[in-house]
Amino acid sequence: MSNQSVQTVSTSNEKFKVALAVVAAIAGVVGFFYLTGQNKPALVAAGALVAGLVFAVLLLWTSTTGRDFLSFAKESVRETKKVVWPTRREAMQITGIVFAFVVVMAIFLWGTDKLLELLLYDFVLGWK
Questions:
Q1: Do the domain assignments include residue 4?
Q2: Which residue segment(s) compose the domain that 110 sits in?
Q3: Does 70 lie in the same domain as 25?
Q4: Residue 95: pLDDT band with limits 50, 70, 90
Q5: In this predicted model, what pLDDT tens digit does every residue of 20-34 receive, in sequence order?
Q6: Which residues contact 35 (CB under 8 A, 6 or more apart)?
Q7: In 1-128, which residue ranges form alpha helices assigned H by DSSP?
Q8: Which residue, 57, 60, 36, is CA-closest to 48?
Q9: Looking at the structure, do residues 61 and 89 belong to the same domain, yes or no?
Q10: Do residues 68 and 7 touch, judged by C-beta distance below 8 A?
Q11: Over 60: is that where the pLDDT of 14 sits?
Q12: Number of domains within the chain
């Protein structure tokens, strides 16, 4: 059984559509901040952001690369829903263990630093 990877070749038209979609998304974000800075109504600024993002998604939907990416994003959301998330109690316990470990490690590293300082400066160099 052969396990070869297949590489798809995208045309320059596909690359242009993806690049244009990225530019549209960036334009929507820049337009949002520009209109917010001009003291325009929040609805106008939000409209510019949404319009840029919707246009970018529509452009991506027309390209093969974009459809593959959007399909990947949908599958990622679907897989995230399958994850068994810890309960609040479990999350608090794990967080407490991490904090305790960090405190113990900090004390250990501080102690090691002070011991090396004592050995080097007092005994080896005799500076103190």
A1: no
A2: 85-127
A3: yes
A4: very high
A5: 999 999 999 999 999
A6: 44, 45, 48
A7: 12-37, 42-62, 64-82, 88-117
A8: 36
A9: no
A10: no
A11: yes
A12: 2
